[in-house]
From TrEMBL:
Keywords: NADP, Oxidoreductase
One example GO MF annotation: oxidoreductase activity
Claim: Ribosomal protein is one of the keywords in the record: no
NADP-dependent oxidoreductase domain location: 4-334
SUPFAM superfamilies assigned to the protein according to its UniProt record, in alphabetical order: NAD(P)-linked oxidoreductase
Species: Micromonas pusilla (strain CCMP1545) (Picoplanktonic green alga)
Name this protein carries in UniProt: Predicted protein
Length: 343
């Protein structure tokens, strides 16, 4: 069983120190959060010199906690031309081949100082897909050396049998990918997916609400959504709506980072959602988080923060109950600005 809030940790080691990380982890867990999400490539934005720092900070914090009280999720990176420095054999390109998954898990267990991972996720598909605001899918870009779904599942099956991993999930995955994993698991007896970690927010709804929601529903694949970027990288807090970007904020510190959430159309949509929030006496962030929480297909919402004040406000937002009138007003804005971050 996991809490409806998951603490995202990708700022640990970049924007947050080890002391900051420990304070956030303790505050969240003491507030009832039992679910923590990390990844082998963190912190973000990624760089070779800091890779793995996030895990290390979580590992030192875990020394003072009972392992059984925490549900720990991490992710293994797939094919990438940007993070070729991830540890893979003899300087091999990161993939999700069986040997790479096994190696990634050993490194993660060591950094986290644990003997098992509760949820191991494939960070993104090891095949061509249209992600992160990229152009539409084009068959001309299909790779001819994709890692077979069966090979990936076999690696997870072995890890689960060894007791090093408890459950399997995916991230940034498509309906086709979920269906293939589900089909092969059903016919082979290998482990099934329990979760999908995809971007979902007021600015990125349609990609999940249509076919993925059907595929992942309890009557079909029965895969729970772990919604990441519910605040669209911080854009939905409204802090970027002024003429001057705030100092120390992510989009200010890392130009071009999550640029899809800082386009003119997304700013216009964010302003409209902020207006709706004000009409109901809510902060823009509280409206955005409460909306994600209200969706039937969301199992847990991944929140992150760079300050304790932000973290407290984000956790408090989960006490907000959405009225139908408020949801109707949100939908009115959505019809005008439909998925501006992915269009």
């Amino acid at each position: 069983m996991i809490s409806e809030i998951c603490l995202g940790t990708m700022t640990f080691g970049k924007q947050n120190t080890e002391r900051d990380a420990h304070a956030q982890l303790s505050y969240a867990v003491d507030a009832g959060v039992n679910f923590i999400d990390t990844a082998e490539m963190y912190p973000v934005p990624t760089e070779a010199a800091r890779q793995g720092k996030t895990d290390e900070y979580i590992g030192t914090w875990l020394r003072s906690r009972r392992r059984e009280d925490v549900v720990l999720a991490t992710k293994v990176s797939g094919r990438s031309d940007r993070i070729t420095w991830l540890p893979r054999g003899d300087n091999e390109t990161p993939r999700v081949k069986r040997k790479h998954i096994m190696e990634s898990v050993e490194h993660s267990l060591s950094r986290l100082q644990v003997d098992h991972i509760d949820l191991l996720q494939i960070h993104w598909p090891d095949r061509y897909v249209s992600l992160f605001g990229a152009s539409p899918y084009d068959v001309a870009n299909v790779n001819d050396d994709d890692v077979p779904f069966e090979e990936q599942l076999r690696a997870f099956d072995d890890l689960i049998r060894q007791g090093k991993v408890r459950h399997l999930g995916v991230s940034n995955e498509t309906s086709w990918g979920v269906c293939e994993f589900a089909r092969i698991a059903a016919t082979s007896g290998m482990p099934k997916l329990v979760s999908i970690q995809n971007s979902y927010s007021l600015l990125t709804r349609g990609a999940f609400e249509t076919d993925l929601a059907e595929v992942c529903s309890p009557s079909n694949a029965n895969v729970g959504l772990l919604a990441y970027s519910p605040l669209a990288g911080g854009a939905l807090t409204g802090k970027y709506l002024g003429e001057s970007p705030p100092e120390g904020a992510r989009f200010t510190m890392f130009p071009g980072y999550m640029e899809r959430f800082n386009k003119s159309a997304t700013r216009e949509a964010t302003a409209e959602y902020a207006r709706v929030a004000g009409e109901y006496g809510l902060s823009p962030a509280a409206l955005a988080l409460a909306f994600v929480r209200s969706r039937w297909f969301v199992t847990s919402t991944i929140i992150g923060a760079t300050s304790m004040e932000q973290l407290g406000e984000n956790i408090d937002a989960f006490n907000v109950e959405m009225t139908q009138e408020c949801l109707d007003d949100i939908d009115a804005v959505y019809k005008k600005y439909k998925d501006p971050a992915i269009s």
